[in-house]
Each structure stands twice: as structure tokens, then as C-alpha cells.
Amino acid sequence: MNSTPITASNASLVSCHTCHLLSRLGPSQTIGRAVCPRCGTSLHRRKPNSIARTWALILSAYMFYIPANVLPVTVVTSLHKVQSDTIMSGVIYFMKTGMWPIALVIFIASIFVPIMKLVTLTYLLVSIQRKSSWRPHDRTRLYRIAEVVGRWSMVDIYVVTILVALVKLGAWATIKAGPGAVFFAAVVVITMFAAMSFDPRLIWDAMESNLQND
Amino acid sequence: MNEPNNNKTLLANVPDAVVHTKKSFSIVWLVPIVAALIGGWLAYTAISEKGPTITIAFKSAEGLEAQKTKIKYKNVEIGQVESIGFNKDLSRVVVTAKLVKGAEKYLTTNTRFWIFRAHIGTTGVYGLGTLFSGAYIGVDPGKGGAPVLEFEGLDTPPVVTTDLPGRHFLLNAETLSSLDIGSPVYFRQIKVGQVVAHNLAEDGKSVTINIFINSPYHKFVYKNTRFWNAGGLNVSVDATGVKVDTESFVTMMIGGIAFETPVNLETGIPAEDGDRFTLYRNHKSIYEKTYQKKAYWVLHFSGSVGGLAAGAPVKFRGIQVGKVVDIRMEFSMKNKAIRIPVLIEIEPERITVIGEQPKDEDRLKITEHLVSKGLRAQLKMGNLLTGQMFIELDMQPNAPPQSIVWSGEYPELPTMPTPIETIATGLARLIDRLDKLPIEQIGQDLQDAVQGTGRLVNSPELQKALHSLNEALKQVNELAANLNTDTAPAVGTTLEQTRKTLAAVEKVLGSDSSLNQEARRALEELAAAAGAIRTLADYLERHPEALLRGKGNSQ
Lengths: 214, 555
Known about the structure:
By secondary structure, chain A is mainly alpha-helical. Chain A contains seven helices and seven strands, in the order ββββαββααααβαα. Chain A has a three-stranded antiparallel beta sheet with strand order 6-5-7. In chain A, strands 1-2 form a two-stranded antiparallel ribbon. Chain A has a two-stranded antiparallel sheet with strand order 3-4.
């Protein structure tokens, strides 16, 4: 492999998303908005403002994650007995009553995966901004895993919505979604957007600039 | 075709992109800003709406669950149990609970907490809903008192909460007699209140029962209202038949109290919260007047006190003023004499004083004054059938002067002998005198007189004299007949006069003459009297009480 691999940005070429026309865009022309000469769509060499956006979204996700876990996700009213559960208390309840697989699923989907996503993205951003060259291949893989798995966190939300829709038995049993569910959904959606707005190519860009500076 | 050339051409034909200037600030930062605002607001509300944290100590945590059990007031949730633990020596369960904001003003030393579980009380079944929804902690916010955050929980829900309008009263009773917390209080057989608490008085001589009367019935309780124990059944059998009386089924099971204001001469002042009353045993006894003050006196009777028992009434002119408390027999070693002191109890309040109320010292002076005027105590027969005696106090104007004896444990009132005693002594004296009369002698003398007179009247001399007179008259008649012709007119008149004289004499002295008759009658009556007196004397010797009772049927 050459020391400086050929990338489109190195060759000052940009491909249009819509009509796939190659057009010339110098590396100095990163400020401003480039438009395809043929179709007029905005041209992006990298995802626009990737780092800033990802940071913003990750921070929001962090901030929403606290109420998502503190406020109750489900409020079950059964024969005048009101019981509100957070995500963690639901996991513990399933564990205590012996339903290990369900507890495991909920734990992985609602607690492990969001945390993992947030931590991964945070790490990637930090590593890019510090221009680290640690295992780019693995980092990219990490990013891919986070992006794919992230959407499965919504399982918990779907369960809550189905329960709310189905369990409307009046005084016998009624389930309502608590405010924690809203915040948790917000967390999942925001992390999804954060993963979407993260440009993994920046990993390599950072490494290249690192190599160049060396 | 030359590939590299194509590439170069291709690459050479790449047009330039058009560049517009771009804003530097990205709109995406709105997201974390909004997130920060939302998070901040959540945190703020969580902190600002934090209510006070309190600890309540209970005997047991039965029915309580950490993080789940609620604290409710009037069924509105005002807090939740956070954690349950123990106090230092493991004697009480300490429940830590968080209340909503604004509850601080209800947390005073008078606030009461209790665990509301399903339970069966004396007056019904409560709290069945808690079997499903779980127990909760009830609260009764107290009024007044210092604000405090540590409480002692009650074991059972209180019978009366502070916001229930009404009044508390205290009743003194000798025994608790089947009353319990929750026992109903009736007025005209409507339940108007209930027993709230009961405890033994400090000296152990009575029970104090705390009752609560709901409004608006508390205004029917006056200072002279009488409360009585209405529990159970009242069965009475008398001349009109059998009567069974009870307030209600509930009182038969768990007892109850009833009250009414007897109509009497006292005016009704409404009773105040916390007033004390006496609990009477039953409905009848509320009409007996009871008096607090008691004065004790000792009486000494010289005669027998047979028929007098403790509890016998002491009356003044027929109205009861007290009762006999104790009768003893005392033997004085000094005098070698037996005395029978009788201890009586006088209730001076039975005598309503008109005018200025005397003080206690003045009462004794008044009694001394009365004694000097002749107030004495006497034994009297109360019931001829049973022979029961009672003590009667009365003013005896003829009593020999005596005064109160103050020596000894109790002051002594002077006594007078009973009427029976005076009768007995008078009777004995009469019999004595009758004994002394020489009745036989009188009888004998009378008999002699009668006999003498009879002899005189029936004597043959008198008969002879009368007979001779008759003969003389006959002869004179013959002479007169003979002389009638001769000296008829003179002799006739003389004879006439003589005849008249003799007739008069016969009238006076004849056997059926009035003098004779009267003499005989007088003698007869004397004889009869003498006989009667003898029989009377005889009879009296055998039955001296006939003087009192007469012959009657006491033969």
C-alpha cells in the first residue's frame, strides 16, 4: 500500500449523491457549500459538520439518559395497587421471579446497547479529534456494530406501547407508559441520529493527517 | 481506446463545483440545548417539589413495603414509604417516608400516624379494600404543637380524628363493666358518640372512661346530665309484670352508655369539653340523688338496738338525711360497762340551705345550736313486719338539756330513749300501782255493805213490822167500820190521814218503794263494780300489755 492512499478528497474529486457526477473540489474549499454543477444538490466530501453534530447529539443523549433510567417506564395499576417500574427495576423483577431470558434481553436491549453506543461514539469522536491511529479497522467495525445494533434498543419501547395498547382491563389491570419511556425513546432516536451523522471516514482522515504531520 | 487517456480525459472533464458560503453555526446544537433545558427542568422540579422526610416508629411493619406503601390523608396520597428499618435497640420499626411539598405545616407533635389494614373492630369490619391495594399509612394532622419530623405511630387507628366536630367528656365509673373502645353512646336510643379510651384512675379506685359525642348532639349534654351504663339487658319483675329493656342489639353485645338530663329543679348549663361525670349503674339509679359531703356522728343508745342494721336510714322528720354506717359493741375496761356506739353518716347537702351558704365550720355551730334546742336521736320502728328500726332525729322540746360530746373519734349526738321504752316503763309503773291497790279489801267491804243492806231490807223484823202494821190497819179498819157509824167522819178523816201517812211510809219503806229500790240498786251496782274491778285486776295481772293493746285478739 502506498503511504498516502488515493482518496477522492485527496484527488479533489467529489461525487454527487443524486446524479453521481464527479466534480472537482479542492481540499481548501471546505468552507462554504458546494453544489453539483449538473443537478444542484449539495456536495459533501464528508458528512457535513459530522463531529459537531455527533457531539451535540451524544451530549443530548447523555442528558436524556438520566431521566430515562430514573423515571418510571411503566405504571401498572392492578386492583387499586399502583406499581411504577423503571428499566432497571423491571430487569431486577424479572430476575427475581426467575425469568432469566427476559431479564437478559431487556438488559441487553435497553441498558447495554444504549450505553455501548454512547460510549463507542464518544470514544470514536475523541479518538478522531486526538488524531489517534489506534486500530482503525477495529474502530470502524465498532462503529458498524454500534450503528446496526443501536436500533434494537427500541424493542423496549415497542413492548411498552404494545402493553399499553393491549392491557386496558379497567380496574383489574391497566398499564400506562411513564415519562421514562419518552426519555428512553428520545435517547435511542438521538443515538441513532448521532450514529448516522458520524462519518467513519474521518477516522482515516485523522490518521492520514497524522501520518502527514509525522 | 486508451484507458489511462480516458481516465485523464474524464478526470480533465470534471467540472468545478459551485461553492456557496455557508453559515458557521450548525442548527444541530439546538438538540443538546433543548436536552439540557429539559434535563435541568426535570432536576429542578425534582428538587423543588421535594417534601419533608419523616420517620415514624411502629411496633411492627406488617403490611408495609418500602418504596410502595403510600401515606394517605382522606384517601389522597401525600407521601410514600422510602425505607423500613429498626431503631437502635431493635424495639421499634422505623419507617422513613417522603411526603409531598407543603406537608410541613401538618407535621406537629399532635399529628398521629397509624397503619390502616383490614381489621375487625368491635363496631364493624374496616379496610377490606386494603386486602387488594395493600395497607397504607393513615395520618391525622394535629392542630397546634411544635413542628417535628419524628413520630411514634399508633398501633390501631384512632377512634376519633381531630377534625371530627364534637366534644370529649370524662366519665368516672366503679368498673369498666363490658365497655370497650368503640362502645356506642346513645341519646334517646340514637347513637351519638362512642367510647374513645379508658384507663384506671391513679389511685386504682375508679375507672375513667373518655367518650366523644359527635356534633350536633354534644349540645344536649348539660352539667347536670346523667350518664348510665346501658349495656346488657334490664329485666325487672314487679306487680305490673315482666319488663325487658335494652338500648339496642349492639349494647347487648358490646355494652353501651346512654345519657339524659333529668327534669328537676336545677337549670341546664351546657357542659364543656373535658367535663367529668359519674357513670351510674343503671337507669333507675340516676334519679337517686348523690351527695359528696358526708359528716359522721356517733350515737349511744341505752337500750337494745335490736332491729337496727348498717344501712338503715337516718331521718329527720321523716325525710332521709343519712344512714347508719356501723354498729359495734364496746366494753370499757375502766367503767366495766358495755356500750353500743352507732356510727351514722349524714349528708348535709340533702338539706338545701336558703340564703347564705354556711361554711363547714359554721355547720358544726348550727348543729350545736340545734342540739341545745332539743335535737335528739331516737330509735324508731320502721317496719312492723320485719322489725327493722331506723334512727329518727327530731326536736324534742321536753328533752333534758344535753350537748354534743366532742371527745372521741367522732362527735356524739345526744339520744333520747325510744317511745317503746317510755311506754314500757309507764306500764310497769301502772301495774305496780295497781298491785298496790287493796282491791280485795275494797271488794270485801262492798260485799259486806251490800249484804248488810240486803239483810236490812230482807230482815224479818222489818217484814214483821210491816206485817204488824198491816194487821193494825185491819183492826183499825174494823174499828173504823165500827166507828164509822160513830165517829165516822172524824175517825174517818183521822183514819184517812193515818192511811195517807201509812201509804207514804210504805212508799218510802215498802219493798217496792223508791228508797228501797234505790238502795237496792245502789248496792247492786256497787256489787257489780266491785266484781268488775276484780276481773279487771285479774286480767291486768295476766295481760299487762292490754293497757296498750286492749283485749283485742291477743288472747
